[in-house]
Structures are given as C-alpha cells and as structure tokens.
Amino acid sequence: MLIPNNQDKTHLSADVANLRDALDQTQRVRHGRDTGTLTKQQVTALLGLDEHVCLRQVSDERRESDWVKNEIRDRYEQRRAADYLELIGQEEVDRRIVLASDHVAAHPDDLVEGKDVVTCPVCNRETLAVTGIDDFGVGYGPGTCLACSYVFSSHAAHEEALSHMLSRHSKD
Ligand SMILES: [Zn+2]
C-alpha cells in the first residue's frame, strides 16, 4: 500500500529475544555452517515486525502471490469453460439459454440489482447465475454460468468490479 492509513503502525513492540534467536538460525545457513530451524515463535516475531508501515514486505509479497495464483486459476477456468462450450455444441447451448432465462436465485440476497443472471464473460450470454455480491456492490457478483459452466470466482468478480469502478472514476 502506497498511502499509509490510520491503521498503519509507526510504533510497535518487537520480540527481541526470539528475533535474535531467529537471526542466529538464519546466519548459520548463510555462512554455510549448518542448517537452521525456525520455531513458530521466531516466525511470529518476524511477522510482528512486518506490521510496521516501513517494513511491510512479507504480507505484501504474500498478497501479491495470492493475486497471481487467483489470476492464473481464473484463466484456466475460462479456458476450461470455453472448451466445454465447444464440446456441448450450439443446440445444447441454445437449450440452456432458454432454461437460464427462467432461473430463480436460491436466495433473494443473491440477487444483483434484481437480476439473477448476468452476462457471462466466457460465452457472452445472459446466463451467469449470480450467487453473491461483489466487494463494491456494482453488479459483478460471483456465480456459475448455466450455459458454459464457467465458475466466476470471488476473485474474478472483485477484479471486474474494481475495473468497473476505476473506469467510472476516470470518466468523472
Ligand atoms: Zn458462460
């Protein structure tokens, strides 16, 4: 995060004893003396340091790698659904589109602006049955496509909603 917010800690107490032990362990490895072992307490002490606004590295990197993993997962999912769409053929797709128009959300809270199906990013038909709301409530809830079977994850929904919000902002 580039802009510090109010929750950012500029002061924190460090578990010096455990940090010193952890350093001892890692130095052993760095100097090729031995293999080191970190205890849970030592790792916790290190992660505690990460709470300081100037040191926030571990959590940022971890968040980043989670984001990449989710992006890759979604791309695979899109490919899988596109292959599946081809496999079932146009006739079956048409049949499913008709069925999707009658789809009723399992729970009223699942509705996005009163709609229970939205446009699917894979097959481009109004067949994506929404099962939740996105983080901004702008109509990109996660769900599953009733035609191509694409699973629109919470991550993908968040990304779509975010880009929608950003493009709306740039127009203002
Ligand atoms: Zn679809």
SSE-based structural type: mainly alpha
Ligand names: zinc ion
Number of structural units classed as domains: 2
Q: What is Rg? A: 24 Å
**Strands across the major sheet, in which order?**
1-2-3-4
Shape: elongated
Question: What's the overall average pLDDT, rounded?
Answer: 82
Residue share in β-strands: 5-15%
Largest sheet: 4 strands, antiparallel
- The strand count comes to 4
Spell the H/E element sequence: HHHEEEEH
Residue stretches low in confidence (pLDDT < 50, at least 5 long) are none
Taking the alpha carbons of the first and last residues, their distance comes to 24 Å
Number of helices: 4
Helix content: 40-55%
What do you see in this structure?
The chain contains four helices and four strands. It is mainly alpha-helical and 172 residues long. It folds into two domains: 34 residues, no CATH class; 112 residues, no CATH class. A four-stranded antiparallel β-sheet has the order 1-2-3-4. α1 crosses α2. The longest helix has 44 residues. The radius of gyration is 24 Å and the shape is elongated. The two termini are 24 Å apart. The model has no long low-confidence stretch (mean pLDDT 82). It binds zinc ion. The site of zinc ion (ZN) has 8 residues, from loops.
How would you summarize this macromolecular structure in one to three sentences?
With 172 residues, the chain is mostly helical. The chain contains 4 helices and 4 strands.
Walk me through the topology.
Elements: H1 16-30, H2 40-49, H3 58-101, E1 117-118, E2 128-130, E3 143-145, E4 151-152, H4 154-171
Antiparallel strand pairs: 1-2, 2-3, 3-4
Helix pairs in contact: 1-2
The structure holds zinc ion (ZN).
Zinc ion binds next to loops.
